[in-house]
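REVIEWER CHECKLIST
Item 1: Sequence provided? yes
Item 2: Single chain? yes
Item 3: Sequence as submitted:
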Amino acid sequence: MNQPPESPAIGIDPEYREMVLETIRQLRKRLLTKKRILEFDRDEIFPESVVREMLSPEIGLQLVFIPEAYGGMGGGARDSCAVTREMSKICLGIATAFFAIQLGADPLMVGGTEEQKQRWLGAIAEGNVLVAYAVTEPGAGSNLAALTTKAEPVTDDAGNRTGYRINGNKQFISTGGYADFITLLAKAPEGPTFFVVEKGAEGFVQGKGEEKHGIRASNTSPLTFTDVFVPVENVIGGEPGRGLKQANAVFGYTRLMVAAMALGAMDALFDITVPYAKERIQFGSPLSEKQGYTHKLIVPHAVRQLAAGAYIDDVALQLDTHPDQDFQVEGSIAKFFATEASNAAADCAMQALGGYGYICEFEVEKIKRDVKITCIYEGTSEIQQNIISTFRWKKTRKSKGGHYEAMAEEMTAAEDHRPDCGARYYALCARALNAAVELAHEHRLTKLQHVMFALADMMTHVEVGVSLARKALAAPPENEALRAASRIFANEVCQLVLGRLHLILSGSGRFEETFVAEFLVRIGQAEMLKSYGGVIADMDRLADSIFERAS
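Item 4: Structure as written out by the authors:
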């Protein structure tokens, strides 16, 4: 991801994108007022009419992700991330309903025939349909290889295949109870296959919406299929057995969108907690002047949001520049880091508001309930850790350490250019990570899932940190707050890498104390600990910027 773009990136004009974002902000004043959002949440209302109005020709938000050839704007990942983030800032439940349309369209986007795209993507562009993506099953979860929903071929008297009979169940399907058509993954004789199934098909039952902890403004329903006939022309791509390939092709994109949703939730949290801290007087001064509030409850999360945003921007640009390449691991890193960061930020935001954080009117407790789902849907955090550690372990071995060494060299060169962005610590951590992967491989520790999760944590933080350093390096000289954030995060990455290394080395029980001590010296533990230098002062600098304090 550190290579410059080789071709023009797809996407809409930034000025036009800003107009779309302003349209979403205006929805808060009319369709999605705070009063209505709280009502939807309290009464568990899926506001179908509101969602359909957002798709109408007068607003047409879905046009952003539909290619121009099928009536859309031809936006790219950066555009969809921006729109998703802005909508999530208003309500994650509504954003989930909108995301379901993108998700349901994705199999058609990557695998549909020209005729299917004209028909189904055209219908989405016209704003006539709600769509759902039906993959998850009660017993399989996100394990697509464990599908039980079956699609049995149906032939005519001449032996020609005319369609399929589908039997099975799907679970946790966003907008499943209201969708006008779904993109369904089922197991055909040739292998997993995506089908378009329309509302009203005989034997297709869209179940009652689930009662949920959060995102109550969205609909989540089970779907049941009993001898549902689907004509052969509804096989996405026209060729059965390509479903897993089609699903994997969109994971980098869809998981990036969930990461953007998490950032939108964090935006909303800061819009509440920062003004509150500036106005709330405690023991004679505002909370915004107290390190117990700023440095514990706000600043660390602001840093992680900046880091997540930088990484998401990097991945989105790569998706827009190289749309045919596989960015599944990058999508997993983005989702894992951003959603866990947002969930932690929501917890601290409730704490920051004290008793008010527990009251519905202030919205923080709703955001806390809502944001948890981002750590679960589109693959839980643990699934992301499995993906990250497995694929990055293999890539590290195949490249003989080249993947992370390239990042280390980039950061070392950056340190010579701008020594105030913490780049040297990211370089140290990248090389320590290489050593950790080599150690785990040589001693067969990769068979221990807990070790693999520890590697995933290190891989995630190093790659996200490098993106933040790049952003800080590219910022104008006067943006001292961003450079301070990069230094703060460099310290966090060092802490995490050292902590996970101690877990692997000592926790596995495989190594003598002398070996552990020598290993830590070799990877530069003493140098990493220097990342603590000035970190509290840097947090003061960032707090000055966040709370607009006179420095």
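Item 5: Key structural point noted by reviewer: The longest strand covers residues 161-174.
Item 6: Recommendation: ____
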